[in-house]
């Protein structure tokens, strides 16, 4: 069972690369059980739905003959593609496992499985703050406060948009830290003490925040451009920083998480005041955080804020941990 779990988790990047938003889209994933690997196929159902949808549209709208022929061509192309995929699937022994919800309906997500869902710990203290004492702490704190200035100017109180953009950045540090610790573990032939997994899970959790936010806010072209630029700069800066001083890197992330908590608190205030409509929660959020079916945006923002508080504590703790180690990744 452990082997099964590890392989599923190891393949999550592969799955999520083409199924952001969580819906089936056609990427095979690896699944192992009882010591043997088998692959599973994910996409025959959406293709069938697409065909059905096209057929329904044809009969309802009464289109002209040319349009009907064109749609039939499309439909048969989809069916042929499905057949081809099924042949390939059959050749490689790939089969999609049947995963059902408790109510018997099919599990619709591939970017996370039912056993990866959880209920957020809402009892966590969202007001906790690490008072900067050392030079490194103060440097980290000032850096984050400085980074907040352009963010405030650009987004002002558009918290949906702000959250979506910031989550694209927030998911980077965990991946960079996890990757570097993974490489160090390989180089030094030593265990990581659980840090690799913790950081990669943080990155995955942040990415799920983003997958939730994009169900609510659609990014404009210039915002997508901004994400590209920011990711290019931030990833490289954080990579170098983490190699030089993991302690400072985690302290900065700890303060970034404090800012994220502040942003989501303001988001909640705007929902309460009516400035932001308290729309129904996206289905992906309901399943990921095990929310009730009638959950709303306010519930989603509340659980995301609790996650951020957890990240804050982990990163401030990690900063202390790496300080105690008195080591850098470069020295090793
Ligand atoms: Fe987040
Ligand atoms: Fe976070």
UniProtKB/TrEMBL annotation:
It comes from Carnegiea gigantea. One of its GO terms (cellular component) is mitochondrial inner membrane. It is a multi-pass membrane protein. Binds 2 iron ions per subunit. The lineage of its organism: Eukaryota, Viridiplantae, Streptophyta, Embryophyta, Tracheophyta. Homodimer; disulfide-linked. Keywords: Electron transport, Iron, Membrane, Metal-binding, Mitochondrion, Mitochondrion inner membrane, Oxidoreductase, Respiratory chain, Transit peptide, Transmembrane, Transmembrane helix, Transport. GO terms for molecular function: alternative oxidase activity; metal ion binding; superoxide-generating NADPH oxidase activity; ubiquinol:oxygen oxidoreductase activity. This is Ubiquinol oxidase. Fe cation 1 binds at residues 167, 206, 209, 308.
């Amino acid at each position: 069972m452990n082997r099964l779990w590890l392989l599923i988790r190891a393949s999550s990047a592969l799955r999520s690369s083409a199924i952001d938003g969580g819906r089936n889209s056609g990427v095979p994933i690896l699944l192992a059980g009882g010591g043997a690997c088998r692959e599973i196929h994910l996409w025959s159902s959406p293709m069938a739905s697409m065909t059905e949808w096209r057929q329904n549209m044809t009969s309802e709208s009464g289109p002209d003959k040319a349009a009907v022929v064109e749609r039939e061509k499309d439909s048969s192309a989809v069916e042929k593609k499905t057949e081809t995929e099924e042949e390939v699937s059959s050749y490689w022994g790939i089969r999609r496992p049947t995963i059902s919800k408790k109510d018997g309906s099919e599990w619709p997500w591939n970017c996370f499985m039912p056993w990866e869902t959880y209920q957020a710990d809402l009892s966590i203290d969202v007001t906790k703050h690490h008072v900067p004492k050392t030079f490194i702490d103060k440097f980290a704190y000032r850096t984050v406060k400085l980074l907040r200035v352009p963010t405030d100017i650009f987004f002002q109180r558009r918290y949906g948009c702000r959250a979506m953009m910031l989550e694209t950045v927030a998911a980077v540090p965990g991946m960079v830290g996890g990757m570097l610790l993974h490489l160090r573990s390989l180089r030094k032939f030593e265990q990581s003490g659980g840090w690799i997994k913790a950081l990669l899970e943080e990155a995955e959790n942040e990415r799920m925040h983003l997958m939730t936010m994009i169900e609510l806010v659609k990014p404009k072209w210039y915002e997508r451009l901004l994400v590209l630029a920011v990711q290019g700069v931030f990833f490289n800066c954080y990579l170098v920083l983490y190699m030089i001083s993991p302690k400072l890197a985690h302290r900065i992330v700890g303060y970034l998480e404090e800012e994220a908590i502040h942003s989501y608190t303001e988001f909640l205030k705007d929902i309460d005041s009516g400035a932001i409509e308290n729309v129904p929660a996206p289905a992906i959020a309901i399943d990921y955080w095990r929310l009730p079916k009638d959950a709303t945006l306010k519930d989603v923002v509340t659980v995301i804020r609790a996650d951020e508080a957890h990240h804050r504590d982990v990163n401030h703790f990690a900063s202390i941990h790496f300080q105690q180690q008195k080591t850098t990744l470069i020295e090793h």
